[in-house]
């Protein structure tokens, strides 16, 4: 079969244009022309692709000489896409980064580019280079990302960004009511390690996983996060995250909302000792025994 143009949607939402050939049911990519983020870019890529088909053995289309006057204002046939940029998406994320004050405490372009790529498409550090290229940003070397993560650890970017998140929440919705929940993230790995372990999976998988606990304000804005080995029980994560939040920002008065499965008898006692109030989301007929015992003795 003669070569033809094919449009493919990428993970970042762009539309890739390729020249492909199908032979005996197998499609082979002959050339990747680029990725388009707008209708205009897609039109230009398709036009450039039509002209390149002949170089890959496609039958050339004959032009009929009808004797009509030529349109001198028509653009030339040769079209070359020199680049593209997802300006609106990049500018929106950049402005949010600055508005939250992150640029004031983390002056690291490589770190920001890694965050930008991960927001657009959750992928590996190596594949983030592809995402940046599709966005129209000249990607750095892979080692640049590795070095920026070392700086993030040594300079404690996490604490700096957490401080700005706290300031934003205090200035907007307030921190009197906080919500906590956990999720699991699995890895397609054959073996476990000290962090990635097989445990209870919300997706009912048997792959190594990690447990992630997140504390947010009433609007869902993140304030504190914790990462634990995949075999750790959910009930053992809430207290460490809350204590880390209190120690980081010297907070004592707040209400914590969580589902009933998160609050064991030990957790309830710890929350009482910390002087915190809590809200349990559960049907009264399904409240766990720990809650019933706590309410009977503490009211």
From TrEMBL:
<dbReference type="Pfam" id="PF01609">
    <property type="entry name" value="DDE_Tnp_1"/>
</dbReference>
<protein>
    <submittedName>
        <fullName>Transposase DDE domain-containing protein</fullName>
    </submittedName>
</protein>
<dbReference type="GO" id="GO:0004803">
    <property type="term" value="F:transposase activity"/>
</dbReference>
<dbReference type="GO" id="GO:0003677">
    <property type="term" value="F:DNA binding"/>
</dbReference>
<dbReference type="InterPro" id="IPR002559">
    <property type="entry name" value="Transposase_11"/>
</dbReference>
<dbReference type="GO" id="GO:0006313">
    <property type="term" value="P:DNA transposition"/>
</dbReference>
<dbReference type="InterPro" id="IPR047654">
    <property type="entry name" value="IS1634_transpos"/>
</dbReference>
<feature type="domain" description="Transposase IS4-like">
    <location>
        <begin position="174"/>
        <end position="286"/>
    </location>
</feature>
